[in-house]
Amino acid sequence: MDFEELSLAVQKGKAKQVRELVNQGVEEGISIEKILNEGLIDSMAVVGENFKQNKIYVPEMLVAARAMSAGLSILEPLLTATGVKPIGKIVIGTVRGDLHDIGKNLVAMMMKGMGATVYDLGIDVPDVAFVEKAEEVGADIVCISALLTTTMPAIGDVITEFEKAGVRNKYHIMVGGAPVNQAFADSIGANKYTSNAADAAEVAKAYLESKYSN
Amino acid sequence: MSKQFTKLAYSSVDDMIYGSCPNPVTTRNGLVIGGGEIYPEVNFTLPPMHITKDTMPEVLSIYQEMIHGVLKKVHELHAPGLVVEFETLPDMTEHPEWGIQIHKLLRDTMSDYEAKYGLKSAIRMTPNDIREMSRPPIMRSGKYWEAMVKTFEGSAKDGADFLSIESTGGKEINDEAIVNADLRTSVFALGCLAPRDMAWLWTNISDIARANGAISGGDSACGFANTAMVLAEQGFIPKVYAAIMRTITTPRALAAIENGAVGPSKDCAYENIYLKAITGTPISSEGKTAACAHFSPIGNISAAVADLWSNESVQQVKLLSGFAPVVSTEQLIYDCRLMNVATRKGQTKLMRDLLVESDCYLDPQAYVLRPDVAFEIGKEIVKTQDPFIRTLNTAKLTLDIIKKAVDKKELVIEERELNWLDILESQLDEIPEDEEAFIAEMKKEVDSSKYNPSEYGI
Q1: I need a labelling partner for B23 at 20 to 30 A (CA). Which of B38, B264, B274, B365 fits?
Q2: ipTM of the predicted assembly exceeds 0.95
Q3: How far apart are alpha carbons B102 and B150 in whole angstroms?
């Protein structure tokens, strides 16, 4: 299998070709981890970089992400069998009373693209559901979003739930949404605020790399 | 359908100007919208806080502080008139008594200022569309719709002048279409689902308005085209897609006027320019003075034919000069004052054209808001009464207009946009011109867990 060919297929969103190349790589005995990291994740990193440099738009990234997922679906059972872990686990959702999910979905998509396993709780999520899911899956990061000034305080309520459960320090909590800023994040005891989806993915990746390199 | 539009409301594009329209609207206290002057429309909202039964006294106190500040400024600056928009937050619509109580506080304070100082003002009541709280949304019954009806009725009984909404029919499938720049699904949402919901919704709102002496105002495709505009502004989706999203919300918007609304249509509905060209009803708009709420590439051009000029919304936060709603009010008053003086000096068209030309060549979303383009699009829309065909043909025409403008080097677009002109064209080419066939195709394509076709009667 040609890694450059696989990378181009991911970047252009050619899901069928990605599936074929990944299958070919597996049959040729290339290590699963190498296909994942150097074939799929590195290709998505190129896509992310093109986006950051204003060369492409989100729809092009989504097509690439779907192509990557097509390849990943072949690798996932093999990864489990060989004990290879994702780069991290992330729980994400929009707070209770808030129905906005476009920004949250973009963050989830970009985090999947960097190789994390993302558990998307959706919209109007009860405070305690963030805690329950994070505990259930052993998450590394919890991402909480709100778009309205009147739902923004619920982000703080979610963090309070983590504190009440005595598990606050187990998780890196990232927050975002139009009315949110770093000062607000600091005031409610969140670990990090990011203003857009691309930054959120980058910050999450840096955190996970730092966490697992120690 | 009570009205049909088969031709434009104007014979010449030169006649379509700000502050006046062929079918002005007069409030109970005699404020005429579209009768010659442009007035400010101020909207304000709470700072970050919970809204509960326990916090309602504080909520009311903040609204009281905001409306007093705004009206005092309007009085001090001798503004000839004012519209205040009260847009409820989800909690206030779910608990109609809260929204009605806040509206009454605002309405009564505005009446006090009129009695004391002769300050003519009107209030637009805009309950938010909470039908989408059910997933998939339940559009025509259920507790959310009932709460909305109570809010409309209660506020109309208490003297609301205009009833409005930013309705969300079709949004449940359009959200995903936007991030994918998927014009095919957007045409389905805006051409097939939304007009059906709008016709039903605005028949109901207009009935409530008639029964209670209020005016059936108008809608906004905020959740569709403005979401696209904001994502384009952030560099997430192509601006050419956002520009087409803007124009194709018009057939949807028209359904409100066809079913009883008379204007002024909502401030954030930038599609209002096409609506004004077709129906001659007054419109509200927002641009540079709404930067407190969101950025846009259409800060000036959006004022070109407005009858009300709005700040969209601003939180009660303290700035150096004072509270933000008062700051917004002052800015809007000065914008309107300048435009009204231009009118009194016989320079309305010059002012309009300056507003247009300062924006229109720099972004496709501004280009499609040119009055001459609005005329071209309006003429295309009134050729048929079929909302789906109107939507599809508007999309094709808009794409053609943008392509020609790019070819003529009249319009600046980024390199990465060029590719999208072809992608969007091929998306449109694949849409059949028969609505029934298109709906059948889309029923197979669209995730059926996201919407309920029967709520739209399809």
Answers
A1: B365
A2: no
A3: 14
